[in-house]
Design the sequence.
């Protein structure tokens, strides 16, 4: 990778963070910024220092450390703006939902790891030799994915982005739910049905498949659904979620690039046009990646919630 592409990635990351911070300072705050946010920022800065000094185990586990710190920083920012957040809410449901996001994040991401066995789009390097250490780092990292996407979306909503956005451009899919399900099945099955040398080019279908497959199901089953937002012509959450995917994608690649234990992309597309480890066109997938995890999480959590809901007792004859 050339220095210029790394420089461009660092510049893009710095510009994104700067714009978010400046926007945060222009918004009215309901609460002071809480101490755990400062703690998260402090942990991140210390971890960065130790990373560049190549101090273990921080170097190997830098990615989950950075994202845990990020979650504290961003959740604290949301709390300051809204007076409530996923980690700090008057009701117990807030922290419980955050825990649910972290728990579900692991098996949901493992679905994509399973796809990667066949598609061979990325691999991991610099992992510790001991299996338990690999498992610790992997589970910890995977558990931050969904919380990061949702917390970043919360922050963008609290910052007032896309407040008047319309969702009319997405109304084509309303009433075509059966078509969406069929498209989703095809997107998820075709990459697995062709040889690896062809499947390696088809991962974009996987990043779209669960959106088409599960959004109509979520709507029909009464789970949270972006199709309901589209029906009501509310585009703010949809666009904030997509923007959050792009922001998280940029930060994932930024922090991953210097980490000891990291992933590298091996899919055969534009490897000479990389920003950090990601070929440039790959960044276009992150907004849809966020939509996909939204659909997957609300389907999984919603269905489990249905099973746990107490059933009414049968009437006596």
Sequence:
């Amino acid at each position: 990778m050339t220095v210029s592409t790394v420089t461009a990635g660092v510049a893009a990351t710095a510009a994104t963070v700067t714009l978010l911070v400046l926007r945060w300072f222009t918004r009215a705050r309901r609460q002071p910024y809480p101490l755990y946010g400062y703690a998260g920022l402090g942990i991140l800065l210390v971890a960065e220092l130790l990373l560049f000094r190549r101090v273990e185990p921080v170097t190997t586990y830098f990615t989950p450390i950075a994202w845990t710190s990020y979650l504290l920083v961003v959740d604290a920012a949301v709390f300051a703006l809204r007076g409530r957040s996923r980690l700090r809410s008057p009701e117990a449901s807030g922290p419980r939902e955050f825990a649910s996001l972290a728990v579900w994040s692991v098996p949901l991401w493992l679905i994509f790891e399973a796809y990667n066995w066949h598609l061979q789009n990325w691999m991991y390097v610099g992992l510790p030799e001991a299996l338990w250490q690999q498992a610790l780092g992997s589970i910890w990292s995977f558990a931050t994915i969904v919380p990061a996407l949702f917390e970043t979306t919360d922050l963008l909503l609290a910052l007032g982005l896309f407040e008047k956005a319309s969702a009319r451009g997405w109304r084509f899919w309303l009433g075509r739910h059966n078509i969406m399900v069929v498209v989703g099945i095809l997107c998820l099955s075709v990459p697995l049905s062709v040889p690896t040398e062809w499947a390696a080019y088809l991962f974009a279908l996987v990043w779209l498949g669960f959106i088409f497959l599960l959004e109509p199901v979520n709507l029909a089953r009464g789970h949270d659904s972006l199709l309901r937002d589209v029906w009501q012509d509310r585009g703010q959450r949809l666009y904030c979620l997509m923007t959050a995917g792009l922001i998280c994608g940029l930060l994932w690649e930024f922090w991953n690039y210097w980490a000891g234990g990291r992933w590298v992309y091996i899919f055969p597309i534009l490897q000479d046009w990389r920003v950090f480890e990601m070929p440039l066109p790959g960044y276009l997938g992150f907004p849809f990646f966020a939509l996909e995890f939204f659909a997957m999480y609300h389907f999984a959590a919603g269905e489990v919630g249905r099973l746990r809901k107490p059933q009414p007792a049968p009437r006596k004859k």
